[in-house]
Amino acid sequence: MVVGVVVLIGGPLIADPVLRADVFEDSAVLFGLSWAPMLAGGLLAWLLVRTWGRRDDLDRRVRLAMGGHPLDQETAWQFFLVGCFVLSIMLLSQVFSFYGAEVGTSPDLAVSASLVSRLLFLLAIPLVLMDRSGIVLDGRGTAMPKVALKVGEPWRWLGLIPVAVVVGMMGYLLLPHIGLPAPSMTLYGMLVAFAVIAVCEEIFFRAMVQTRLEILMGRWGGIGAASLLFAMTYALIQPFDAVAQLPGDDLVHNTGLAMLTYFPAGLFYGYLWACFRNTWLNLLMRMAMFVLLLPPDLQIGL
C-alpha cells in the first residue's frame, strides 16, 4: 500500500507540470501548513488515549460487535458500492449536462443529485447489505452502531480536544485568506447538505470500511487503505460532483491533488475514529472543515 501511495503522489507530480507548479511553487506553503494541524491533532489524540483511554477494551468491543460478519465479502461489497457511487455521480452529471440547455439545470439540482447518490450508495444500501449478511438474525448486526453512536464512556469524548485544536489551527491559517460567508438561507441550506454528506461519508468510509479493514489488515493498514479509497473516490468524482473541491481539470491532476489533500485528511479522520470509535467526533470535524472551506460567495466546496 505504501508503494501505491508513493506512485499515486509521485506519478502525477512527474506527469503534470501544472500540479508541480501548484505543489512546489504556488501552494507549497499552504500544503505544508494544512498538514501541520492534522499531525498535531493526531499526536494529541494518541497522547490522550495513551494517558486516559482504554482503547484495548474498546477494540475488543469492536471485534465482538463484528464477530460472525463475513468481513471479506462485506468489504468486497463496499468497494463495489464505491464504484457504483462514482458511476452514479458521472451518469447524473451527464444527464443534467444533456438536459441543462433545454430545461435549465441549477446548481441546487446538481447538489441534490450528489446527495441522492451518497445516501443511496454510501449509506442506505451498505446498511441493508451489512444487516442482510446473516447477522441480523442473532442481533449482532446492531452491535456496532451502539458502539459508535451510544458513547457513554467519558474518555471517548476527549477527542473533542484534538478536534478543537485542528479546527482552531486550520481556521487561523485559512480564514485570513478565505473569510467566512455571511449568514443566509443559502448558507443554512449548504450546511444541511454538508451534514448529510458528512453522515454518509463518515459512516461509510470510517465506521464501515475502515473498521473491517483494521480487522483484516491491522490498525494502520486499515486506516491507510480506507484513506486511500476516500482520496481516490474524490479524485474520480471531482469533474462531476458539485460538492467536491479539487481545482484540477483532468484525472492526473485530480489524483495528485486528492493524494496531497484528502489522503492526509483521511488519515486524521481515520486515526480519530480508531482512537475513540465515536462517530459524533468525526461528524463534528467534517462539518467544521466544511464551514472553514466554504468560500464567502457560497461557491460549493468540500
Note the main attributes of this structure.
302 residues, mainly alpha, 12 helices, 78% helix, globular
Q: Could you describe the 3D structure shown?
A:
The protein has 302 residues and is mainly alpha-helical. The chain has one domain (2-293). The protein is 78% helix and 0% strand. It has 12 helices and no strands. It has helices at residues 2-15, 17-26, 28-52, 55-65, 71-103, 107-131, 143-149, 160-178, 185-217, 219-237, 251-276, 279-293. α9 (185-217) packs across α12 (279-293) and α11 (251-276) packs antiparallel against α12. The longest helix has 33 residues, at 71-103. It starts with a helix and ends in a 9-residue tail after the last helix. The model is unreliable at 134-138 (pLDDT under 50).
Write the layout of secondary structure elements.
Layout: H1 2-15, H2 17-26, H3 28-52, H4 55-65, H5 71-103, H6 107-131, H7 143-149, H8 160-178, H9 185-217, H10 219-237, H11 251-276, H12 279-293
In short:
The protein has 302 residues and is mainly alpha-helical. 78% of the residues lie in helices and 0% in strands.
Q: How far apart lie the N and C ends?
A: 26 Å
Major sheet summary line = none
**Radius of gyration (Å):** 19 Å
How does the helix and strand content classify structurally? mainly alpha
Order of helices and strands: HHHHHHHHHHHH
